[in-house]
Amino acid sequence: MDSPQPPLHVVLYQPDIPQNTGNIGRTCVAVGAKLWLVRPLGYRLDDRYLKRAGMDYWQHLDWEAVDSWAELESRLPAERMWLLTRYATKLAWEVSFQPGDVLVFGSESRGLPDSLRERLAHRCLKLPMRPEVRSLNLASTANTIVYEAIRQFGGLP
Region 128-134: what's the mean pLDDT? Predict the structure, then answer.
């Protein structure tokens, strides 16, 4: 019997900070989302900070690490991807999220690569921020977008 499809896929592209990944993993467990990690990572997957931030939820997390963006794209549909970047012109609440959507977040230090943002410019979203703020914490941003998507399609099953 097939396992149920997750309501969302959360992708961290080359994340640097294990505590953020742990916190995002906890959010994924809370809503039933699948977490994808695109290598290289800025930490080891057995990192004690990763485990500490995910607390005792990590064993409940549906997650997978892939070696490249190409591998991720071969597994998840590009037409369902939403890329979160401060360079976007469209706000996250100007789109209609659907179950099965893929939410892509860049690394804490570099964000998403220009080539990816340019190729998928029509799929780029941002949160509103005053100009004094360069960026928000990755885990805070992911939490906000995940729960906006869940809200839009009617909550958890």
Answer: 92
Inter-axis angle of helices 18-31 and 138-152, nearest 10: 10
Q: How confident is the model at residue 1 (pLDDT cuts 50, 70, 90)?
A: very low
Phi-psi domain of 48 (left: phi exceeds 0; alpha: psi -120 through 50; beta: other): alpha
Rounded to two decimals, the pTM is 0.94
Query: Is residue 93 a contact partner of residue 148, using CB atoms and an 8 Å limit?
Result: yes
Q: What percent of the chain has pLDDT over 90?
A: 76
